[in-house]
Known about the structure:
452 residues; alpha+beta; 2 domains; seven-stranded antiparallel sheet; six-stranded antiparallel sheet; 28% helix
Amino acid sequence: MCGVVGIYAPGRDAARLAFFALYALQHRGQESAGIAAADGGAIRSHKAMGLLGAIFDEAILSELSGPIAVGHTRYSTSGSSIVVNAQPLLERSELGDFAFAHNGNLTNTQTLRETLSPQVVLQASSDSEVLAKMLVERSGSLVERTAHVLEVARGAYSVVLCTGDELYAFRDPWGVRPLALGALDEGGYVVASESCALGTIGARFVREIEPGEILRIGEHGIESRRVIDDDKPPALCMFEYIYFARPDSQFAGRSVYMARYAMGQALAREHPVEADVVMAVPDSAVPAGIGYAAQSGLPYVEGLIKNRYIGRTFISPDQQMRSRGVQLKFNPLVENLRDQRVVVVDDSIVRGTTTPRIVSLLREAGAREVHLRISAPPITHPCYLGVDMATYDELIAANKSVEEIRAHTRADSLGYLSLAALIAATSRRREEMCLGCLTGTYPSKPEAATVK
């Protein structure tokens, strides 16, 4: 996960634009956030643990002056959830200072760390700092250094960085994590993890940054260089479509909403059931739920209301609250559930801990039958490319059959979307997607020490 944004906006307050763009990407990470701004010389930054609204205010933003900025909102995978791992990272090099923000996860971090000189001191524990230090240690221009990184770094990395007077962006040769380019009407450019962040600040979507592409943005305009490797075909993460991305974002000209809607339609065709109503587990499964209802002819209802403000809290619930589990996050609408045979559409079952609680919650609210429909195939393999997707031992579908999972969740029936239908819903070719968590075939194999 994680969200990154880069702003090049001559004559404007780039940090303020970055703040609002990051708000549109807050769903990609809630553990920490930060913004660094450049005014043609110095780079100033501010970052902290928590959500954007709690970290930044007018006084802080006013200190981050300048027409160039990079921002980051973090969901930790590699590296602990502590402030030293918050981004952007600030680095010093012979080319000058730069601020660095990374979305993704490397699969050969240890190998890359061993290539760094003994004098390099790593202050953070994330793979992001290793990537940044590689740019520091390499010789040549920043574009040349980045090209070297693209040749040797394995895994997922969409990066924005700024020097005192330029903005850079690059994407790994597989394109596992998304990165979009937008243009500001008043002049200038925006780079963001998802296209939904562009409209928030009045930018026009231009295109997706290509896998293996390096952008340099400054007073000269945009320069592009692409490092192409035939052994690294494009592999956008399928979970961007299933769960991560906001429904109003788009990839390859197709909105995430319509892809999820098509998943729901296909799910209804593949797993019909005698029922009274269809509902979805908020929020990411809602388009699929609506698609299932439309295809099946059943009415769509809201069955669960989500507490959208609880998010990731740093205040731990006591044991009695933890035992209630899912009710911290959802409340049932009894009027829509009582005496109904309910189809419940969700986007995935990972560990299998939350789903049984949802089923129980719906039964307690009066549902007569609960039929689970999942708008993705079973998750049978961990992710090594930037998603906290558990280990083989923790993944329920890696250890249980569909019928065993149904019994575990105490649902009346359970149906998963087929892989073929999932791919068709995205309007992409299978060979253009990373399906590692579903098939066990990854675009970049992890180092042996990281496989669990």
